[in-house]
Design brief:
Helix Hairpins, 71% helix, elongated, mainly alpha
Length: 280
């Protein structure tokens, strides 16, 4: 019987909504990499990881058992996933994309937008980026990767950090700043206490800041954009504006040059006329 306290989805580094075919593809890639005969790490680690993967897949790989597992998790109140387990899967999954590199490179050749969305997801979680690759390759839906990526980010944040958007944005800033310990503390608090009510959010986040000794306003890099799309970035927009300004300046310079030559010609003509009159 499955242990509902074990987060099998986090073990695979996938979201609960993952399609069955994509889940199978993730399992095949992981079990191949951690086969004791080929894994580059210790054999004991490979055997332990392989056992965990097989245990999880015995449940999630069977649609009926997976549905039963999901029902038991919901009934037990396990709405928030185990971010610590997801973190371990994330560190293991950093190189997993190598298993699908050839197919992915071919897809990117014809649909380059998929790669920019994968990079977005990797900023948040390497495992999430890998899951995105698998989902795209399995579904063969390449023309709207932004929609897929946005959905995965929204579900990931909801799965591990609750449904309140202010808390989710706080976590995004923490992860972007390299403070995954802050994200882990948020996850632990929500798993123990539940998602804070609207009037409790600021106090909840202040306690997280104090406990983790984090000033989120110091040296903050640009945030991960959970709704990033095909719109121009600030850099692209500024470049376009600069290009437009430069083009307009070039036109003005050309007009000024023509005027100067025209006036110069009139001056020469006037001198010649005066010289002719005086010569008479």
């Amino acid at each position: 019987m499955s242990d509902t306290l074990k987060d099998y989805y986090a073990l695979f580094g996938v979201l609960p909504s993952i399609e069955q075919a994509a889940l199978s593809a993730v399992y095949r890639a992981l079990i191949k990499r951690y086969h004791p005969d080929i894994y580059s790490g210790g054999r004991e680690d490979a055997e332990r990881i392989s056992r965990d993967l097989n245990e999880a897949y015995e449940v999630l790989g069977d649609p009926a058992r997976r549905a039963d597992y999901d029902r038991k998790r919901a009934a037990s109140g396990e709405f928030s996933g185990d971010y610590q387990q997801a973190g371990r899967s994330d560190s293991r999954t950093r190189d997993e994309a190598g298993e699908v590199t050839k197919d992915w490179e071919f897809v990117v050749r014809y649909y380059p937008a998929v790669e920019s969305q994968r990079v977005r997801l990797v900023q948040l979680s390497s495992a999430l980026g890998f899951s995105f690759q698998i989902a795209v390759l399995e579904s063969r839906v390449f023309d709207n990767p932004q929609k897929t990526a946005n959905g995965m980010i929204a579900e990931y944040l909801r799965q591990y950090f609750g449904s309140h958007e202010t808390v989710q944005q706080f976590v995004l800033r923490a992860v972007q700043a390299g403070r995954k310990d802050v994200a882990l503390e948020v996850n632990r608090a929500i798993r123990a206490l539940g998602t804070p009510k609207r009037h409790q959010v600021e106090n909840f986040l202040e306690r997280i800041r104090s406990h983790c000794d984090w000033d989120e306003n110091s040296n903050m890099p640009p945030p991960i954009n959970r709704y990033d799309g095909d719109r121009a970035t600030n850099t692209e927009t500024n470049a376009a504006t600069t290009a437009g300004t430069t083009g307009a300046q070039d036109v003005d310079d050309a007009v000024d040059s023509k005027v100067r030559w025209f006036l110069f010609g009139l001056a020469i003509l006037g001198i010649l006329v005066i010289a002719a009159i005086l010569g008479k």
